[in-house]
Description:
By secondary structure, this protein is of the alpha+beta class. The protein has four domains: 28-228, Clc chloride channel (Orthogonal Bundle), CATH 1.10.3080.10; 244-443, Clc chloride channel (Orthogonal Bundle), CATH 1.10.3080.10; 460-583, CBS-domain (Roll), CATH 3.10.580; 595-696, Regulator of K+ conductance, C-terminal domain (Alpha-Beta Plaits, 2-Layer Sandwich). It is built from 29 helices and twelve strands. The strands form three sheets. The protein has a five-stranded antiparallel sheet with strand order 8-9-12-10-11. It has a four-stranded mixed sheet with strand order 1-7-6-5. A three-stranded mixed sheet has the order 2-3-4. β2, α22 (478-487) and β3 form a beta-alpha-beta unit. The two termini are 39 Å apart.
Amino acid sequence: MATAQAGPGFNRIRRALFALIERFSPDETTLMVIVAVFVGLMGGFGAILFRFLVEFFQTLALGSGEDTVALLEAVPWWQRMLLPIVGGLVVGPLVHFLAREAKGHGVPEVMNAMIFKKGVIRPAVAAVKIVASAVTIALGGSVGREGPIVQIGAGLGSTLGQMLRYSPQRLRTLIGCGAAAGIAATFNAPIAGAFFALEILTRDFAVVTFSPIIVASVVATAVSREFLGDTPAFPVPDFNIAGPHELPLYLLLGLVVGVVAMVYVRTLYGAENFFEKLKMPAWLKPALGGVMLGILFLFFPQVYGVGYASMVEALDGHMALHTMAMLVLIKLVAVNITLGSGYSGGIFAPGLFLGGMLGGAFGALVELWVPGSHGAIGTFAMVGMCAMVGSATGAPLTAILILFEMTGQYTVILPLMLASIGATLVYRGLMKETIFTLKFAQRGQQTEFGRESAILRDFHVEDIMEVNPVSIGREEKLSEVIKLFLTHSEEHYYVVDEEGLLVGRISIHDVKDILHKKSLGEIVIADDICHEVNDAVYRQDNLEDCLLNLGHRDTTDLPVLYNRDHPVLVGLITRRAIFEIYNREVLHHQDMGINLVTGEARMHDCVELPESYKVQMFIPPEAWLGHDLKELALRPNFNIAVLAIQQRDRIGGLHNEMPDPDRPLVAGDRLIVVGEVGSLEKLMQATRRGKQPAESH
């Protein structure tokens, strides 16, 4: 009985909430900004929790202190070797059995969710990633913090969006918000955090995407500064540039860094492939990598963990030339072992380390060979950091902003920019894919996407294909083939064998020259005149890839096969069908520039259709609530069709659903209808009277 009484009360609160929302009419951007505040809070506290876990596990393993090199040198040799092995035994099973997406450096997995999984990241991924990466770093894994925090923040943003039942486009934006929040909070760099998400992940600078990401980044930074303080990530001395004559040297450094960045990316994925081929349980491979790391730590404790202490030493100019040069090679080996064997951690800090040591060694040579260049080691080390990260990630702008915000040094902005662009150009001249996209390229997947392609990627060929198309058997006689073309308007048909496997294609041009040769009708068969089909698509291919294939072939349709192992012809996909679904989705996305009618006083905002038809959206009167579309009978009474029902989600945002004739209307619903202008006016009059349509006749 109590439950029955709670329903009307909840509905009254719901109606009051939605009435308040309708009064202020927040647009898409405003609603996303509100949600971005919560994502920023989650990302900020997630970064704090992650740092706490790293320090907690490191204290258990080595003791407290920021200088890991000193801590490592103070423990027995056997403990140095044992720590990464223990870390591997913890991380391997944790990742393998609970969330395999948490393996590696994280950013490609986030990109995979955005591009190929409609923005969905399993909630378990963030939880596993935060523990696995903290254990990896604390027990010696030669990786960074930014990859894990990107995946953690992105996972939190996606989880919140899934709870709010957001569309894939909104989920992608919230993933960007979470990633920006994590980077901003980790490195105390709000601008760089936002640009990381925009330049690398979303690649969309539209206001509806840009604004929430900026807000999430700012909120996360505020949280971080409140609990961790407002200090740069690197305590570095003041740098000075002697003059413009030094700029060519920084450009030369950038060119060298570009080559090393290519080696960094190639060897990293080479290491992953090597460990992937090893015949042993996947959950044990990190422990094997831990054995190799333990041996390295006996001789080179500088590559233990993130390596910030060694980077600061290079920036201060207190590290010898031969040491920095050697550490470039050793760090390269260490990070390849760590990520290749299956640990969890980021590639940003290793990139900083490699660039810093390479730049420092370059600066030491400059001091030896160029008169008056005293103090160049630190400056070149910092510039090398920026150039390495910018070229390897394919995001030089983000790298420049991160290094600038992390160090607070504006005096080196010109060398940073020059070296980063030089390194990026060299890198791209050597290889197209970045450290984030090479994995997709090896799988044959494309990662270039934007707002338009995101729509097409949300649908698959099997969603809109023409099922069981008319086909020709390979043994069909020419006379039957000609009869098919004469009685149908199609320009070509596909030829299949006895099992339905695709054999080729016959077009009208293949038969028009022999139409008059009746003697061949019973001799020639379809297999004799069909041509090989070079392009086909499969049921699970997304529509963007399908449209690209159509463009390459310059044809109106493509055959759809069951799968690569069983290429049975199961359908046809046409260019027209793809464009129709694209236009429909654009119409339903308000944030793509379509403003539909939201009330009786805004008829001028309708989307014009041919022959005096309009699409209109309005709020049903309260008298209609509780009645379904079948009862309202809009089509028989007004000759109006309902295209969609726009519903309020849990925080007041709008999303469209296909109309269900048996679902009663509830508070917050809006009807999107199409009809003639006169019919719409009659419906609006019924709306103003607060009557049901059936009562108005």
